[in-house]
Amino acid sequence: MSERSAAELALEIDRDLQAVRRRLRRPVDNMIASGGLTGPQQSAMAALVKAGGLSLKDLSKELGLAHSTVSGIVDRLEKRGLLERRTEQADMRVTRIVPSREVQRFLRETWPELERHPLEEALGAASEAERRTVARGMRTLRRILERGRV
Fold first, then answer.
1. Is the dihedral of CA 36, 40, 46, 51 positive or negative?
2. Where in the chain is the domain with CATH 1.10.10.10?
3. Is the pLDDT reported for residue 85 higher than 60?
4. 8-state DSSP, 94
5. Burial status of residue 32 (CB atoms within 10 A of its CB: 0-12, 13-18, 19 or more)
6. Torsion region of 55: left, alpha or beta (phi above 0 gives left; psi -120 to 50 gives alpha)
């Protein structure tokens, strides 16, 4: 068997990592899909969660959508109890749109379990030797990447 080039091996590893990421994200993706949010609503929620809240103007810029479009998205999400509008104390003219307390609680308490569960389940079903091999391989890959120039 001939040796594979670094480029060939990199492509194979990248495909494997993408497949692993998709599998690990499946419970999260299923949860999002079950929420019945449209693509733009999902994007808005993701941007607001990541930023911890944004003004409507900043959210419009972040999403690359018209102010009126984003305003409608926010209105619908607010009616569902997923977002809240809060007036800034420092400048009462500014309103920030933030994830609701319920969403924040979900992200704090439930989301980490959704992300962790498939990996824990898979490793729980693996033999001790397989778990050590996976851990060693991941540490090795991380070390190689960290010493790289990129």
1. negative
2. 37-100
3. yes
4. -
5. middle
6. beta
Q: pLDDT of 30-66, one tens digit each?
A: 877 777 888 888 888 888 888 989 999 999 999 999 9
Confidence (pTM): 0.58
CATH fold, domain 37-100, is Arc Repressor Mutant, subunit A (1.10.10)
3-class secondary structure, 37: coil
> Contact 51/99 with Cβ under 8 angstroms?
no
* 134 Cβ neighbours under 8 A, 6+ residues apart: 123, 126
Place of tokens 């941007």: 47
Sort strands 95-99 and 54-55 into parallel, antiparallel or unpaired.
antiparallel
Strand-pairing partners, residue 55, are: 96
Residue 85 near residue 77, CB atoms below 8 Å: no
